[in-house]
Amino acid sequence: MARRGFTILEIVIAIFVLALGIAGIVAIYPTAIRTGKQSVDDSYAASIALSVADALQASMRESFPTGGPSRYVIFNHDGVLDAPPADKKDFSGEAMHQKDYCVLLPIGGNELFYPVPNLTGPGLHPAALLDQRAGGAQVDNGAGQLIYAKDTEGTGHLWIARTYPLGRYRAGEGPTGEVRTEFRFLDINPGVTDAKLVAADRYCSYSYAFLLRRWGPVRVGDTTDPPGSDGLIRARILVFRDFDEEAARQLAPTNASSPVPVGGAGLTIPKTNVPIHEFITMLNPP
What we know:
Blueprint: H1 8-59, E1 64-65, E2 71-74, E3 102-104, E4 111-114, E5 148-150, E6 156-158, E7 164-165, E8 185-187, E9 197-199, E10 206-214, E11 233-241, H2 245-250, E12 277-283
Antiparallel strand pairs: 1-2, 2-3, 4-10, 5-6, 7-10, 8-9, 10-11, 11-12
């Protein structure tokens, strides 16, 4: 007795079912890749934020007077590019208000941003200038305000002028700001012009910034702003990946009352300049 074969209809149905299965599997790959990448970012960012928090708390063990109403500490962590001070107590002689390792402690209700923006150029608002803390002025180092810009989806984000880049040489250790040897890019096609370069380690693509503000419990009769501002310091740590400093410069404000970016109105903040991780912790001031 001859065996009956498959009909064309059965074959078509089988192929259709197989195609659906393959399409489902293929559809999973982009999601899996994004999830894997997000997991790596989350892991890196969380570790970086905790490390920065620990470094900030360590720096709080000793503070120094500025000669004005403020005090400062010396921040030491990967990402600091200025050479260590010869005399950490010499605020004026070392011009510490211009150094990225110098962190003034906030007073009253002021929220201070670090690293101090160093974007300079004609028409830039003082919020974009280097020397924002001269004399230990008792003001925000954002010229009295924090400035926000919108992303491509219309969500407002804090304008970050620059960040502490990880994996770079500090002044005196090598070419200042350049990627350290252990994080250099690998040439996968040696000798080939315009060969594709692959990062040896993604660590050097991350950077961070932080904001400090006095914080504390409400006390009866306390008139400081915010209440209890002689207590803890709130540290808000922001972690970025592939931060674009040139894009940040184009978003720098030119006017305090009606901020207009250097590059013109209508600019949006790129995704690279939106933090991928934010961590808030409390620090014990010295």
